[in-house]
Amino acid sequence: MTFDYYEALNSASHTVFCFATPDGVASPTLRVHPGDTLNISLTNANPPAPPGSPSEFISNTSNVCGDMTMTITSVNMHFHGTNTSPACHSDEVIHTLVNSGETFQYSVKFPKDEPPGLYWYHPHVHGLAEAAVQGGASGAIVVEGIANIQPAAAGLPERILLIRDIPRVTIPTTSPPNTRAGAPPPWDISLNYVPIVYQPLATPTYTPAVIKMQPGAQEFWRVANASADTIVDLQLQYDGVNQPLEVVALDGVPTGSQDGTRQGKPITMTHILIPPAGRAEFIMTGPSTSVASATLFTLAPDNGPGGETYPPIRPLAKIEADSPAADLPVVPASRTPNAQRFEGLADAIPSASRTLYFSEVLLDPNLPEGPTNFFITVDGATPTLFDPNLPPAIVTTQGSVEDWTIENRTNEAHEFHMHQIHFLVEAENGVPVPPDQRQFRDTIQVPFWTGTGPYPSVTLRMDFRGMDIGDFVYHCHILAHEDAGMMAIARVLPAASASTQLVAAVLPQSRSVQVGAAATTFATLDNFGAATGSACMVAPQTSVPATFFFQTIDPLTNLLTGVPNAPIDIGAGQSQSLILGLTPSAPFAPTDVAFNFSCANAPAAPSLVGVNTLNLSASTTPVPDIVVLAASSDPGYVDIPGAMGTGFFAVATDDLGAGAAITVSVDTGTSSLSVNLAVCQTDPNSGACLASPAVNVVTTIAANATPSFAVFVTGSGVVSDSPGVNRVFVRFTDAGGVLRGETSIAVRTQ
Question: How much is the average pLDDT of 701-715?
């Protein structure tokens, strides 16, 4: 799938935004099955931001995904509600930026147990989200298989309806009284891009969209509130009588489907409150020919005295049942249902309980109509505006189940949304909800506080048992509030790191020494966990004839500190620099020596060849011992700009052993990557290649010589961001084919 992102002015002089395919289809519906991978090539086709317009760095070299600098024309994509990875090139929104003229590759893997239902996509650049979504840049995602869980939907015509809000087209010169009964809507709305515009007459009027269907026929309607700010309360009326809606899914999860039976349980409702970003899927029965007026409405939600006011009722669509229906797709027949993502959550034992709250503070208390700062805060912490460079507000581990109570301490409604996972609604205001309301959602309204009494709240069971690890966000999905700061980061650590998570690196990554001489290398041991790592040690895992020691060093001077082989403590979020030494007692061929970096209260750091291993050999006579270091503009990575672009990195060497003829070659180790590789020796002063890059270079490296090289990595497809697996190796071998030096660097498509 290829998308271009555009902005333009409409006839009302409002800026509109659109994802469009090369053949001009705007925001198409994307259909996937559980287990599929959705590949999208997104190009920002807008002109560059004007000179002098605001910009902001939202990334550093350790977390950049796409561009580092946000401008007023930046874009990215959020695959709302999907239980997909928050890694770069998937559903990552904290640091992902695609700027004007840039192309970015998305590869979004849907889990095999993804619930079948309606999801959607939209831009999610913090500070720009409201304008982009209100401008219309959104589309539906359907995960197929709803009839497997809800057989009642099988064979029914399917209609996908997206409600969007847009800036009001008509601004009245005299406004009616600002009451909940008479105020004009804060925004106009549209249904599948058909505008439903407020007309400021004595009795305000709206021209709804038109839906044609066969009289009395059943249809399966999938409705997404793809608004930036508008709350929808959906109701279907025939001649003024509310009609039953047989709800089969909410927020993409079939109702009643997660109890292990894998059979949904429809619930009947006469109106459905759908917050911004929420979805409802239901079976409806069309009007008979005797019905004079059939209309789909949105009612006015009670948004609180501090919130926006809505008209009491607004028509969305007039239903005409006196003509053949449009040609609609039909829901496929039922098949054996697959396992469901959230099965067993209701009976799980929570590992933690947390309280979070929404709050608002005027920037200037003397200006009631002035700007407001919006916060979502873990109770006990200091309210802080969202900043993508702040540490996570919540840290948990994969496999955890937690109960979160979300309070609203403001006088307007807020809409809590969680990325990457869904939650089970357990209680409202501390009171358990009825069984038919214990549904799985990704967005839920938290009502406003009246100013007295307990704060309104919802209690939600959060499910971190899936495969997603990393950083992602939670926020209010009234996007004006999210853009103004009401968002924070949650971090899910791998399951093995319940208290302490260790990561290690070794540099240089190879040594070739004589028997009896110490081969030393530097190591860094990082503790990314939430607890201090105690009694941390290093020991070789690979058996070679050599004695071993480790000792702490000062990372600024590399001078030894501490005592050799003494256990050390590493604080949460801290690192320790070390020197490792092996002194061979007998000759042996080049061997990747793995180390056990571990603490008494934590599993060992993962062992990754080319990251924290040392390729070591020992000889009885002098041999080349080429210390090799790689350097790139993005430390630790060679970034390929686009699927077919070329990235490069530099290689510095120092032969600490004997001189010899050396062949320099490049490869991707045991991984098969979509790249082509070439290397050249360079002028150490200018960095220019001394000859055309080739698959290898043959040169003579004298003792103590320091030649330099450049490696070019050209893409032939997307390389995912997996630094422990996707790497480029540079190897130095002597005339006998024996490895005398190597280094590696992670590679990814940007």
Answer: 97
3-state SS of 335-377 is CCCCCCCCCCHHHCCCCEEEEEEEEEEECCCCCCCCCEEEEEE
Residue ranges with strand state E in 585-693: 588-593, 595-598, 614-619, 626-631, 637-640, 646-655, 660-667, 675-682
Taking residue 34's Cβ as centre, other Cβ atoms within 10 Å add up to 19
Q: What is the mean pLDDT of residues 358-373?
A: 86
Phi first, then psi: give them for residue 577, nearest 5 degrees: -90, 140
Instruction: Please report where in the chains the tokens 């060093």 appear, as a residue.
Output: 553
pLDDT in tens, 411-435: 999 999 999 999 999 999 999 999 9
Say yes or no to pLDDT of 499 above 70.
no
What is the per-residue pLDDT for 181?
Answer: 44
**Partners of 653 in the β-ladder:** 628
d(CA 163, CA 314): 12
Q: Is the pTM of this model over 0.85?
A: no
The torsion angles phi and psi of 146, rounded to 5 degrees, stand at: -60, -35
Beta-sheet strands, E only, within 442-518: 443-446, 457-464, 470-476, 487-493, 502-507, 510-514
d(CA 719, CA 738): 30
Cβ-in-10-Å burial (0-12, 13-18, 19+) of 696 comes to middle
Res 177 pLDDT > 90:
no
Per the CB < 8 A criterion, the answer to whether 638 and 746 are in contact is yes
The tens digit of pLDDT for each residue in 31-72 reads 999 999 999 999 999 999 999 899 998 987 778 899 999 999
**Which is nearest to 240 in space by CA: 287, 315, 311, 294?**
294
CA 204 to chain centroid, in Å, comes to 42
In this structure, what DSSP letter does residue 152 have? G
Domains located in the chain, CATH noted:
2-146 (2.60.40.420), 147-320 (2.60.40.420), 345-488 (2.60.40.420), 496-621 (2.60.40.10), 624-750 (2.60.40.3670)
